[in-house]
Amino acid sequence: MVEIAESLQRYRPKVPERSKARPCSTPPMIVWDFFSGCGGTSAGLRQAGMTIGLGIDNNPEAGATFRQNFPEAEFLEADIRDVTGPKLDALHASGRGAALVLAACAPCQPFSRQNRGSRKGDDRISLLKQLYRFIRRFSPEYIFVENVPGMQHGCAEGGPFKDFVAFLGRHNYGVDFKVVQALDYGVPQTRQRLILTAGLNGSPGMPAPTHGEGGIPYATVGETIGHYPPLKAGEGHPEIPNHRAPSLSPLLLERLRATPEGGGRFDWPSHLRLQCHNGHDGHFDVYGRLRMNRPSVTLTTRCISLSNGRFGHPTQDRALSAREAAALQTFDDSFVFEGGINSVARQIGNAVSVRLAKAFGEHFIAHRRTVLGL
Question: Is residue 88 in a domain?
Fold first, then answer.
């Protein structure tokens, strides 16, 4: 009980995220977050000092999470294809004098390496083009797009990403894009992402990495989730939002107990091994445990499921809790997720890492200060 009380004491003093936005002498910047999901991009940009004006997403539970955490913003629960420019005119007029930042993370599954099927006929591929009409109408000063590596290759004969870059060039934007590693910006997770930045006053470029060789050491699983009170599989904490771990079958629990920290299915005795894994060297991360002293693997939409990746707690006999997965995506503890545990896991896995978005938000603010001569 003393151990749990000490853990709670470390938990309680954390300052709510919405109180952490830094005052900034730069004229205001307002964010419109398209394909917002639960709000990872918005959380990071708000921490950088921007104001969140709008979120748009068609997922009801992600929308409920966004509304809960960004009460200052408008939110449209809608398919982007059904949102018209005139519908946003009044909102844009209310922000006159502020720089508009358009952020977008279009659904990434068509471009993911995990999607082994054909992309042909997948209408999610065209969603990036839905931004064209909003860019033409509102001329945002900055644009931030995040997606999985591979989107820049997209489809044969050009593809939506190449077309988007060309479109921005025709509309006088300076553009830069690069595959970045979230680890390099303080995210305790190996997570490569394609980032595009664009600006009407020249390309803002990319922020310099802050972590890694020659910088701050990479963040680790232990320093990120080690303070949370212990749980059993299927248990939730009464005071810490979303600190709940999924249930495990007796057999899966036995397998996990046979798995050392950082280990996986290759460590099991023969009677616990799955027949389908005999002679199969791939999928080595499934049923694995994380290591306390290293960063996490990439979190997916099934980031609390042992059978879908190395998502076992390093030392406790359970999978990650939703709160721990959120922390590895660098959400503050004050960020509360709505919906069932599996929906919350999808929201977390789909989100832009908060600390990554914050780094780019601060970079945009610094670029704008330079442009304005401040």
Answer: yes
DSSP secondary structure letters along 321-340: PHHHHHHHTT--TT-PPPS-
The pLDDT of residue 125? 54
Q: Active-site residue among 24, 108, 276, 303? A: 108
Q: Which of 8, 46, 17 is nearest to 362 (CA)?
A: 46
Whole-number pLDDT of residue 40: 98
Task: Find the distance separating the first CA and the last CA of the chain, reported in whole Å.
Answer: 53
Residue 221: C-alpha distances to residues 229, 293, 298, 326 (Å): 15, 6, 12, 12
Residue 149 located in a structural domain: yes
Looking at the DSSP bridge assignments, the partners of residue 195 are 146, 178
CATH number of the domain at 153, please: 3.40.50.150
The count of other CB atoms within 10 Å of the CB of residue 217 is: 9
As a whole number of angstroms, the distance between CA 345 and CA 302 comes to: 6
* Amino acid 14: pLDDT: 39
Q: What is the C-alpha separation between 172 and 263, in angstroms, rounded?
A: 51
| This prediction's pTM | 0.88
Token code pair at residue 174: 């300076």
CA distances from 279 to 12, 191, 254, 270, 274 (A): 48, 29, 22, 13, 11
Residue 82 has pLDDT above 70, yes or no: yes
Residue 108 falls in the annotated catalytic set: yes
pLDDT at 156 over 80: no
Total tally of structural domains belonging to the chain: 1
Whether 269 maps to a domain, the answer reads no
* DSSP bridge partners of 81: none
3-state SS, residue 143: strand
In whole angstroms, how large is the CA radius of gyration of the chain?
A: 21
**Using an 8 Å Cβ cutoff, are 45 and 361 in contact?**
yes
CA atoms of 41 and 50, how far apart (whole Å): 11
